[in-house]
Design brief:
The chain has 411 residues and is of the alpha/beta class. The chain is built from 12 helices and 16 strands. The longest helix has 16 residues.
Amino acid sequence: MSGIAVAVTGLGLVTPAGIGVAENWVAVCAGTPTAATDPELHGLPVDFSCRVPDGTGLVPRRQLWNTDRHTRFALAAAHQAVDNAGLDPAGWDGARVAVVMGSAAGGVGTLEAQHRRLIDGGPGAVSPLLLPMFLPNMAAGRISIECRATGPSLHTATACASGATAIGTALGLLRSGACDLALAGGTDAMVTPLCAAAFARMGALSTRRNDPAGASRPFDAGRDGFVLGEGAGVLVLETLPHARARGADILALLTGYGASADAHHLTAPDPDGRALARALTDAVTESGARPAEVDHVNAHGTSTPQGDAREARTLLRVLGGRPAVTSTKGVTGHTMGAAGAIEAAYTVLALAHGLVPPTANLGAPDPGLSADGRALDLVRGTARPADLRLALSVSSGFGGQNAVLAFRRAP
């Protein structure tokens, strides 16, 4: 069933750049960084982050006590996506609707808080809702319940590639005939003291404490690490016959997916980029295209020295210097398992609007990112109008995970 295109008919976004698609697109195209000093990280080696503007007002008040922050993000993004697609769960055949969500950590904020209660107050202080709030699959579970989706309900965990892996998994379900419609994406809320301390101890985070807004600077010569972020992105995916039968507005086509593993190191990317190159090639080939036909890449581009260098060299080797490349993490920071889904949505919007967002904070591209005398066509400064037909969204994660999604402009 490979090669069968699937329609993207709805988008939902909850990110540091804003709540909703319109707000996100304006902020990302303006290249406005969202990193700021974070009071909840006070006293830590790195005390700034990219937070969702209002993480509590996303769901009804009655749900605040029994949902983790990452689930609230997911529910809000899913409801946005369903509305954006012009769908009403009350009227669909739930058995033909799948939910596939990814995250790197699930309800880690709840786990940290409840562990403190255990230490301070003993076992009786622990909430009986700890597990339903913490377990990583609960975002998919809650979406399934609220949207009356009784088809396959799955959780993917491929670290920071989780959201992209979820979308690729949903593509496979749709192509196999297991469902007609899928809500797919990623969510994470890892801006917590424990996670921030752990990433800082690894040396993964930027240490620009005096300039948080300028800290996330993908592909820049002065980059020194990523900025921790949070959020969720959900896409409504449908088989083309299903979308056309109901007269849906098709935003883009999901035409290819490539996945691979570096098999190199637990946290460091393979500097040769061989597995990432294969994922890129597979996504393009599955789209019925050649690498020279790719117009735009939303890169993983986390702002780490090793990661950006590996990705830049691999993109050049596989695609050449033609595609317009951006990393929207200059605006949102690194939203962990949600990143692949959020950036997939931005890629769909780029195709729909014929506009490539700039890479925020990219002042002086690192000359070391070139290969064989070629350099990436990095979009910086202002958003660039372009005739975009085929675009890729690239994600990678700890454990050597790679996931690449290919989208075509809507017919």
